[in-house]
Amino acid sequence: MHIEQEDLRSLLGDQLSPDKARAVMEHVLQCRECAIKLADLVASKGSPPHPERRSLVRSAASIPVKIHVLGLSEARMEGQIIESSEGGLKVRLPQPVFTGTLLQLRTDRNIYMGEVRHGRAVGSQFEAGLKIYAVTSLLKSD
Q: The domain spanning residue 121 has which CATH number?
């Protein structure tokens, strides 16, 4: 069973219930075809011509994260969230990723779905700025 295109669009628009968003994200992790469909949807939205346009307050962070590159490559890696703001994250990665790449990030508390908007090499590592499309809590609410 595959995820419907409308549900993928709703995920990107943050219009799914938390349970439905969690189910969609879990499925996308396991299904290459749906991961490609989701990456294509993100790519079709286009990227801004200037990567740094955030005007929101940024907070320093140091949160370990497991990263799944969605789409054709299916790469997995570990990294670290080093900054957060409303709607965005900056992550430190062991290898570069292309602008426009869709990433799923998993911490102990949340799953994030976001698009790489810009990046740069920093020593032997890579820092990427992500626009976050969806956040799903892994913590069960009472």
A: 2.40.10.220
